[in-house]
Amino acid sequence: MSIYVVGHKNPDTDSICAAISYAALKQAMGEDATAIRCGEINKETQYALDYFDVAAPILATKVEAGQKVIQVDHNEVGQAIDGLADAELIEIVDHHRFGGLNTAGPIYVHTEPVGCTSTIIANMFWDKNISIPKDIAGLLLSAIMSDTVLYKSPTCTDKDHDAAEKLAEIAEVDLHEYAMAMLKAGAGVGDKTPAEIAKTDSKPFSFGSYKALVSQISVMDTAEVLDMKADITAAMKDICDKEGYNLIMLMVTDIIEESTDLVFYGEPKKLIADAFKQDASGDCIHLPGVMSRKKQIVPPLTEAAAKF
Fold this sequence. Notes:
Strand order of the largest sheet: 3-2-1-4-5-6
Shape: globular
Order of helices and strands: EHEHEEEEHHHHHEEHHEEHEH
Structural class: alpha/beta
Radius of gyration: 19 Å
Helix content: 25-40%
């Protein structure tokens, strides 16, 4: 039985590209591994797959009991593929906080405080003296450029920067030119409904006793999203009612201005006010310099929840 390598629900570019690349590394090491996905591919990721002529992983929304699974780019139960509790989780490769995942026995875990899981995987290729194929290098590069927003995110490290420069050479692309084209392909709302915008690149979190969903959409101009704010918050209310969230937050991140407008619905708004030291009595606050959910949104909310 092939080992499944899978990212999180609502996959972003790192989640998809890391799964494909880590499966390729395992195959190069003589192991039977297959990349799968448990969510739809966004426009940015599709641009990278098309550019480097790589097929998308097969869609599998659930794994069967006993199936061997490797998780990449996540480790929280709420973000994992359905059926994981009865499957056999054998490995995690990630760059996020740990969020309460329990395993039946010891497993291999490789985590680093870098900007992107694909940075870790690229270095695993090099550490094992395994050459990275051009198409895989392109996908790894795409993921790093996406997660670090072309080095602008505070999560970006020297290790991400060094890996990206090397991968761009292998992939034979101009790093900045390619990255901007990819980011532009994924930016904006396109034909998304308000509900789809509210759940763009969404991840569930628990902040104390509160169940929250934190989404993020990257744009070149925030006006196209903020002009729809009333419809988006109405959609957020429906999501809260149907899915049992206390809070939903949407990061509308401006790639050019390097800032985020945080649109939100639910309670307690005091959690948001305490986390970001702003008046959160409305439904949106502006956060200059904020681009990273992992480093600039989740930690302040976690700290604020601990004081409730």
